[in-house]
Each structure stands twice: as structure tokens, then as C-alpha cells.
Automatic annotation (TrEMBL):
GO molecular function per UniProt: ATP binding; D-glucose binding; glucokinase activity
Pfam families on file: Hexokinase_1, Hexokinase_2
Residues annotated as domain Hexokinase C-terminal: 231-465
Name of this protein: Phosphotransferase
UniProt-listed Enzyme Commission number(s): 2.7.1.-
Keyword Kinase assigned: yes
Family, per entry: Belongs to the hexokinase family.
Pathway it works in: Carbohydrate metabolism; hexose metabolism; Carbohydrate degradation; glycolysis; D-glyceraldehyde 3-phosphate and glycerone phosphate from D-glucose: step 1/4
Catalysed reactions listed for this entry: a D-hexose + ATP = a D-hexose 6-phosphate + ADP + H(+); D-glucose + ATP = D-glucose 6-phosphate + ADP + H(+)
Annotated GO biological process: glycolytic process; hexose metabolic process; intracellular glucose homeostasis
Length: 476
């Protein structure tokens, strides 16, 4: 399809791909060919992921799996009967959010009543854990006062976006700090307990229960109230991940055979064991080699927004060095890692304004371009983003096919709650992903629903479901 598009493009720009133009076409296509994955190759990738998922679920094999398949202890999706007021706390960077969320059963809606953003000063980020959680508890108290909620004991959903080992819905051990935090006395400790202790030290308010929430799970749950067939969450933005509802009998690391549990796949690590070596291009290998974490998050580096722009830059640089672009003269900007932003890909691929956007971006990068150069740049962007969408589809198809087979169904109808800037902002990504999923999971009818604030509303919904299940167990 892309080759035909390029042929037509040459006809429009140069009145026919003859002589040097034909040579250019063939040489550019040669460099882009490794990005073009056939349906058979995508099916093969899916089969490899399926094996790794099974390994990750195993009691004795999970430590060898590159796809970690982490139990979340979220045991159900919304059923539409959840209601009430909830708090949500979203901590994942130098700011954190506190939210008041109201779930309306009659209208099947999750409303963000209000929220507040609180800064975390540098001295607290590098101080003691006690000081950090005292600061969080103080900001939460201030928010309760502003909402006139002081005196109410509300449940809280806690999105804590750092590497943790979850032991229960309300118990999560911090493995290590990232993102510039280095608070002492927290690594190896239960962060829920540290939060509760800070609230108890104040003594002027309380919370009834806490549910720990991964942002991908929050994405699924924020959609699950609107569409109760939503049993998969997917993020494809700066990073990528997915979760889904697995049969408990297959979750060998957790006791119990009945029901289901949401599994956080951590699929960004797929390929870390070398199983995708034949799919990696020389450009992927260079991106990995120069990244801050070589050898890990292989799949994420092939498809997510943090890396797509850099892959395109490396391809453009290679074509320039081979004198196929920009008269063989790279600019200082093109030689600089990170200079080609991932958002440029979306802008260049816009159906109506893409070519004009390409010209502006190439000018911004101080490149001596002509119209053919701009067209080639657009082709490179299209090729790299298309591979990302199709690889993402292969991974998602693995999950929906697994759910169908797990349940012994001839046909599965399910919904994916999805979030992330690549999915939301790229003009073609969602359409290409959905088309590939239809081919790779032909016995599954998959609907896609954009998440609304997974780390806020989704966290509150996890708490609402946990509360409903707890009440049901008391009534049995």
C-alpha cells in the first residue's frame, strides 16, 4: 500500500518515477522494508506474547518472564450499581492531585466534583518518607476543608505511579523510587500504611479504606461504568501498557480458583528476553543502545511516544547520509538526539495539512529540503507509526483472543478502555490499530472507548467496586 502511494507521489511531484527518481524510490523503500510487518509476522509476534503471558502467570516461571503479569487484586469490573462519594489521590511526579468523585447510579455517570493540584517541593522529594506522607496528608486535609467534606469518612483510591509489588488491594510495597524522588524509609515499605499513619498522626480526619490503583487499571475502570463489557485497559502514550480480566484459576501466584482478577501485563517489557530480535531494526537497536535503560522495555521502545520521534530521526539521518535526502547534508538539529519530536509525526501525517506541516518542521530543523524530501519525510513517519499501530494491535489481539478462549466462547464481544497521547492525537493510529485487531482476532468484536481520567475517576471507581464486593461478602 505504501509503495503504491509512493509511486503515485513521484508521478505528482516529478511526472513519473523514471531514472534517478526510480532509483530514489527503490533505495528509500529498501530502508523502510524492515518496518513493514506482514499479517503472518504479526500473528507470530502474537503467539510469542501469548507464551510469555502464560509464563508470567505461572507460580514458578513468572520470575523468568519479560511480561510480568502482575496481580492487581482488582477482582471485578463495575456492574452499574456503584454509587456514592469517593476521594482519589494521584501521585506520580513533582505534583500530585486530590479529587472528589461522585458516582451516580441513576445516570451511570462518574463526576469529578472538584480537584486540587499540590506541589511537592524538592526538599520533600529528597527528605524522609514521613515528611512526604505528612505533606500529602496535610494537602488532603486542606482539600477536605475546601469541599466541606471534613467529618465524612470517605474511601480513597490511590494511584501511586512508582514500581511496586502489590500484595492486596490495600497493600503495596515500593520497590524503588524513580522520577527524581529519593525519600528515605519508603522503599520496601507498604505505602498505604505510610499514608494511613500520616493521617492518624494528624488526628483531625480519617478515611474509611484505601485501594491501590495502577493507571492502566484505572483506565479500564473509568470506562467500565459507562460500558460494563469493558474488561481491558490499554495505554499507548509516552509509554505503553495493558491490563485485562483473567480467570483466577490461571493466576497461579494468588490463592483461589473462583472468579477473575485484573492482571497488569506490563507488556512494555515484551522482548526483553530477545524473542523479538528478528523484528527489531537497526534503528530500534540504536534507540535502545542510547536510552537510559538499555536492554529493557524492548516492546515499549518500538511503539510508544517516547521513542517514535527518535526512530524517525534516525531513519531520516540514515537516508541523508546515503545522499537520498536533503542533498546529503544533515543539519546540526538532525544530528541531535531527541530533536525530532513525536508530535511532529502526527502533524506531518495530518490528511489535509501534513505536507505543509512537513515543510515547516524541516525548515525548523534547518534542513535544505525540496518537495521530494518533504514527501519522503512523510512516508517515513507513516511507516514508523503504522508499524507501531500494528504491533500494538498484535499485542491487544493476544489479550482478546485469550479472553475468548479462556471462556470457551465461539465469539467474544468486549470493550477496551484506552488512553494515551499517541492513540488520542495521531490522525491514523486508532483506525490502523482497530483494522489490524479485526484481522488478528476475527472471532472477537472489539469496541474502543476513550478513558476519562483513569488515574482520577478510574481510581475512585476501583475503590467503589472494592467497597461493593466487601458489602456483598458481608451479606453472604
Amino acid at each position: 500500500m505504501l509503495a503504491a502511494w509512493w509511486f503515485r507521489l513521484c508521478l505528482q511531484v516529478n511526472q513519473g518515477p523514471f531514472g534517478s527518481e526510480l532509483s530514489l524510490t527503490l533505495q528509500v523503500q529498501k530502508h523502510l522494508e524492515p518496518f513493514r510487518l506482514s499479517l503472518e509476522k504479526l500473528q507470530d509476534v502474537s503467539a510469542r506474547l501469548r507464551k510469555d503471558m502464560i509464563r508470567g502467570l505461572g507460580k514458578h516461571s513468572h520470575h523468568r518472564a519479560s511480561v510480568k503479569m502482575l496481580p492487581t487484586f482488582v477482582r471485578a469490573t463495575p456492574d452499574g450499581t456503584e454509587k456514592g462519594d469517593f476521594l482519589a489521590l494521584d501521585l506520580g511526579g513533582t505534583n500530585f492531585r486530590v479529587l472528589h468523585v461522585r458516582v451516580l447510579e441513576e445516570e451511570q455517570r462518574v463526576l469529578k466534583m472538584d480537584s486540587q493540584i499540590c506541589a511537592i517541593p524538592q526538599d520533600i522529594m529528597l527528605g524522609t518518607g514521613e515528611k512526604l506522607f505528612d505533606h500529602i496528608a496535610a494537602c488532603l486535609a486542606e482539600f477536605l476543608d475546601s469541599q466541606k467534606l471534613r467529618g465524612q469518612t470517605l474511601p480513597l483510591g490511590f494511584t501511586f505511579s512508582f514500581p511496586c509489588e502489590q500484595k492486596e488491594i490495600d497493600k503495596s510495597i515500593l520497590i524503588r523510587w524513580t522520577k527524581g524522588f529519593n525519600c528515605s524509609g519508603v522503599e520496601g515499605e507498604d505505602v498505604v500504611n505510610l499514608l494511613k499513619e500520616a493521617i492518624h498522626r494528624r488526628g483531625d480526619y480519617d478515611i474509611s479504606s484505601v485501594a491501590m490503583v495502577n493507571d492502566t487499571v484505572g483506565t479500564m475502570m473509568s470506562c467500565g461504568y459507562r460500558d460494563q463489557s469493558c474488561e481491558i485497559g490499554m495505554i499507548i502514550g509516552t509509554g505503553t501498557n495493558a491490563c485485562y480480566m483473567e480467570e483466577m484459576k490461571n493466576v497461579k501466584r494468588v490463592e483461589g480458583e473462583d472468579g477473575r482478577m485484573c492482571i497488569n501485563t506490563e507488556w512494555g517489557g515484551f522482548g526483553d528476553d530477545g524473542c523479538l530480535k528478528d523484528v527489531l531494526t537497526e534503528f530500534d537497536e540504536e534507540v535502545d543502545k542510547t536510552s537510559i535503560n538499555p536492554g529493557v522495555h524492548t516492546f515499549e521502545k518500538m511503539i510508544s511516544g517516547m521513542y517514535l520521534g527518535e526512530i524517525v530521526r534516525l531513519v531520516l539521518l540514515k537516508l541523508t547520509e546515503e545522499k537520498l535526502l536533503f542533498r546529503g547534508c544533515p543539519s546540526e538539529a538532525l544530528l541531535t538526539p531527541g530533536s525530532f519530536e513525536t508530535r511532529f509525526i502526527s502533524e506531518i501525517e495530518e490528511p489535509d495539512s501534513g505536507l505543509e506541516n512537513a515543510k515547516k518542521i524541516l525548515t525548523k530543523l534547518d534542513l535544505d529540503w525540496d518537495l521530494v524530501d518533504a514527501c519522503v519525510a512523510r512516508l517515513v513517519c507513516d511507516t514508523v507509526s503504522s508499524r507501531s499501530a500494528r504491533l500494538c494491535a498484535a499485542a491487544l489481539a493476544t489479550i482478546v483472543n485469550r479472553i475468548r478462549i479462556n471462556r470457551g466462547l465461539d465469539h467474544l464481544k468486549t470493550t477496551v478502555g484506552v488512553d494515551g497521547t499517541v492513540y488520542r492525537k495521531h490522525p491514523n493510529f486508532s483506525d490502523e490499530l482497530q483494522a489490524a485487531v479485526r484481522l488478528l482476532a476475527p472471532k472477537c468484536d472489539v469496541t474502543f472507548l476513550i478513558s476519562e481520567d483513569g488515574s482520577g475517576k478510574g481510581a475512585a471507581m476501583v475503590t467503589a467496586v472494592a467497597q461493593r464486593l466487601a458489602l456483598q461478602s458481608l451479606c453472604v
